[in-house]
Amino acid sequence: MEQNEASADRAFRAEVRDWLETHLSGDFAHARGLGGPGREHEAFPARLAWERHMAAAGWTCIGWPAEYGGRGASVAQQVVFNEEYALADAPARVNHIGENLLGPTILAFGTAEQRARFLPPIVAVQELWCQGYSEPDAGSDLAGVQTRAVLDGDAWVVDGQKVWTSLALESDWCFVVCRTEPGSARHRGLSYLLIPMRQDGVDVRPIVQMTGTSEFNEVFFDGARTAAGNIVGAPGEGWKIAMATLGFERGVATLGQQVGFRRELQGVVDLAHRTGALDDPLLRDRLTRAWIGLQVMRHNATRTMAGVEAGAPGPESSISKLVWANWHRDLGELAMDVLGAAGLVADGGPYDLNDWQRLFLFSRSDTIYAGSNEIQRNIIAERVLGLPREARP
């Protein structure tokens, strides 16, 4: 991993590694390994304090231009940072949506006023964001959203419902795709609004998942208001901007994610040694295939970094989402097979899951959230391979 890096990137890796080793100690030593998919409930205040500590030292939004609070780090350096962060077993980030989704979108499409208002609190981790895309009747089919917004003088008034909204309870703001042109359908007539969550017109209701936790939420907008200037792009450009946001989501952070996957895979291998499952040739073959799949995943993600260098990643980023989602779901199934019958019993009552049970249950959602497998395959077929579009009503 480090052998082919340029000397400047090796020096940057050493700087990141030394800083994390020094600061993930003392008051923050207990934060190592906390949080993550299916465990977002863990020590949220401590993780927020850690990330604000990072911000004070200049380690948030490092890929952003220096004029907006970043370090202007290259894509290679951003990859290094995410890898080292994962290798240090640092706590799961609480500001991921603001830093990696909304922030780059504002940088690419926002006005000077929006950049001045919204970027500094993201850099400082003083305002947290959630994403208002999916709806009960428009999950992966984002073009089917029905949440509507009407311009009333100097404010947009928003009514509708969003679902599967990650971290909505902790968030201060939500970027929302909604319909602003009455009578419009599908991709037309959508706009991208920035809506404050702390108001009477917004109601957040947690959804209890199979893991027993509530990372996802329902969000109801009932006369919610936001300033007229809190629209990114022009009215009707919401589809284009929403797709760009999804592209940013599949950027350099995925390589850090894969370091976590590698740690999980090693944990399953160690588990197979302890349980004797490694003696089973079929399970041994599946573990080998999982290792090969992880190498393929990394090479594919590295290849798509060219899209990041050019700006927003293109539709090819759907390949990465499809690959890692299926690999991770399969790893959860493999972990349960390695556990055997013991995997059917909770560690304690009433519903105390171990890490492998939680991995199995939460990874079922990997192939659904952030665009289901079916949607990713359509994008790849139509926009990468140039195949005929699927018939739509």
From TrEMBL:
Gene3D superfamilies: Acyl-CoA dehydrogenase/oxidase, N-terminal domain (1.10.540.10), Butyryl-CoA Dehydrogenase, subunit A, domain 2 (2.40.110.10), Butyryl-CoA Dehydrogenase, subunit A, domain 3 (1.20.140.10)
Keyword terms of this UniProt record: FAD, Flavoprotein, Oxidoreductase
Residues of the Acyl-CoA dehydrogenase/oxidase N-terminal domain: 9-124
Domain Acyl-CoA dehydrogenase/oxidase C-terminal: 236-385
Keyword set includes Oxidoreductase: yes
Acyl-CoA oxidase/dehydrogenase middle domain: residues covered: 130-222
Cofactor(s) this protein cannot do without: FAD
Keyword Flavoprotein carried by entry: yes
Domain of life: Bacteria
Family under the similarity heading: Belongs to the acyl-CoA dehydrogenase family.
UniProt name for this protein: Acyl-CoA dehydrogenase family protein
Organism listed in the record: Actinomadura parmotrematis
